[in-house]
C-alpha cells in the first residue's frame, strides 16, 4: 500500500517492516566470528515481532531450496548493516566521551543502544517513534528482563507531527549539547519533510551538538533497488516488502550541503571509506548492495 500523509504502522507492516529487517541484519552481524557489533537484543526483538520469514531466516528454518539464495542475499546486507551500526555506535560513544550527556534517536525502531552501549553516568537517551513501535519495544524488552544502561525516555510521536514539543515535554533541555542520529530515516521522508527535520534539529541544538546521518546520492533508487530485490526473491516465502510503496522519490537537497548552510560543520565519508576504516571491503560484487556504495555517512557539529 502506498504511503499517505497520515499513515501509521507497527513493526510488521509498512515502514515498520524495514525496521524489523534492519534488526535482522544486526542479529546476523552479531553472530559473525569477527563481529563489528554486539546486539544481543536484536534477535529476540525480531522473533517477538513475528514475521515468519525473518524468524526462519534467523533460526535456520527456511526451505532448503531457498536457504542458499537467502544466505547469499543476507550476507552482503549483513555486512552493510554491521558497518552502519558500528558507525553510529562509535558516533554516540565519541559524543559521550566529549561530554555530551543528551542523546536523541530519531525513528528509533528496534534500536537497543539505550540498553547495550556503555553510557557514562548521567546520560539520557530519548527515543522517538510511532506510539505502537515504542510500546512494543518497551514491553518486549521488559519481558526479556533487559535494563537500560542510560536513563531512557521514550517519546511516542510521529515525526510528521510536533515532535519538538513532545520532546521538550519529555524533559529535553535545548540549552545542552545533544547527540542526534537520523539512521536509515531520510529516504522515508518526503524531500520537504527532510528539510523540516533538519530545521527542527538545528533549532533544538545548542552549540557543540552533534548529528550523524546518511545521504544517498542516488536517491530513493539506492534503497529501493536493494530491498525490492529482497522482496521479489522471497515473496513466495511470505516476505511482503514493496519498497516502491514506502520511500519518497523526488529531488532532495544533499544533507551535508543543507546542514552546512544552516550553521553546522560537516564531514562526510563514502560507504566504502567507512568500510575501510573498520578493516572491511565493501562487497562490490553483490548486486543487491551495489548502489549503496555511493552512500555518504555524515557527521556534523553545531557551531
TrEMBL record:
GO MF terms held by the record: methyltransferase activity
SUPFAM superfamilies, per the entry: S-adenosyl-L-methionine-dependent methyltransferases
Top-level taxon of origin: Bacteria
Transmembrane segments: none
InterPro entries, per database record: Ppm1/Ppm2/Tcmp, SAM-dependent_MTases_sf, SAM_mthyl_Trfase_ML2640-like
Gene3D superfamilies, alphabetized: Vaccinia Virus protein VP39
EC number(s) given by UniProt: 2.1.1.-
UniProt-listed GO biological process terms: methylation
Keyword field: Methyltransferase, S-adenosyl-L-methionine, Transferase
Cited NCBIfam families: mthyl_TIGR00027
Function in brief: Exhibits S-adenosyl-L-methionine-dependent methyltransferase activity.
Family named by the database record: Belongs to the UPF0677 family.
Name of the protein in its database record: S-adenosyl-L-methionine-dependent methyltransferase
Amino acid at each position: 500500500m502506498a504511503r499517505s500523509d497520515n499513515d501509521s504502522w507497527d513493526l510488521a507492516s509498512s515502514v515498520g517492516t524495514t525496521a524489523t529487517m534492519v534488526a535482522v541484519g544486526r542479529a546476523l552481524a552479531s553472530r559473525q566470528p569477527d563481529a563489528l557489533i554486539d546486539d544481543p537484543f536484536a534477535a529476540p526483538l525480531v522473533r517477538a515481532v513475528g514475521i515468519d520469514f525473518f524468524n526462519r531466516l534467523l533460526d535456520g528454518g527456511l526451505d532448503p531450496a531457498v536457504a542458499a539464495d537467502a544466505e547469499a542475499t543476507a550476507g552482503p546486507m549483513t555486512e552493510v548493516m554491521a558497518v552502519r551500526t558500528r558507525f553510529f555506535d562509535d558516533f554516540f560513544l565519541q559524543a559521550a566521551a566529549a561530554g555530551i550527556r543528551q542523546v536523541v534517536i530519531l525513528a528509533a525502531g528496534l534500536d537497543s543502544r539505550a540498553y547495550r552501549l556503555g553510557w557514562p553516568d548521567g546520560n539520557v537517551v530519548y527515543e522517538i517513534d510511532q506510539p505502537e513501535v515504542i510500546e512494543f519495544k518497551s514491553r518486549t524488552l521488559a519481558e526479556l528482563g533487559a535494563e537500560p544502561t542510560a536513563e531512557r525516555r521514550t517519546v511516542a510521536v510521529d515525526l510528521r507531527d510536533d515532535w519538538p514539543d513532545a520532546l521538550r515535554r519529555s524533559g529535553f533541555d535545548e540549552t545542552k549539547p545533544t547527540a542526534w542520529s537520523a539512521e536509515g530515516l531520510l529516504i522515508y521522508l518526503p524531500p520537504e519533510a527532510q528539510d523540516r527535520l533538519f530545521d527542527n534539529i538545528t533549532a533544538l541544538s545548542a552549540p557543540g551538538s552533534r548529528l550523524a546521518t546518511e545521504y544517498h546520492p542516488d536517491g530513493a533508487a539506492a534503497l529501493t533497488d536493494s530491498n525490492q530485490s529482497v522482496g521479489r526473491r522471497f515473496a513466495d516465502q511470505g516476505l511482503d516488502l514493496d519498497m516502491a510503496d514506502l520511500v519518497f522519490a523526488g529531488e532532495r537537497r544533499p544533507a551535508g550541503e543543507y546542514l552546512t548552510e544552516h550553521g553546522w560543520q560537516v564531514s562526510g565519508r563514502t560507504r566504502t571509506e567507512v568500510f575501510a576504516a573498520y578493516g572491511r571491503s565493501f562487497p562490490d560484487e553483490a548486486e543487491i548492495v551495489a548502489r549503496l556504495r555511493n552512500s555518504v555517512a555524515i557527521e556534523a557539529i553545531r557551531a
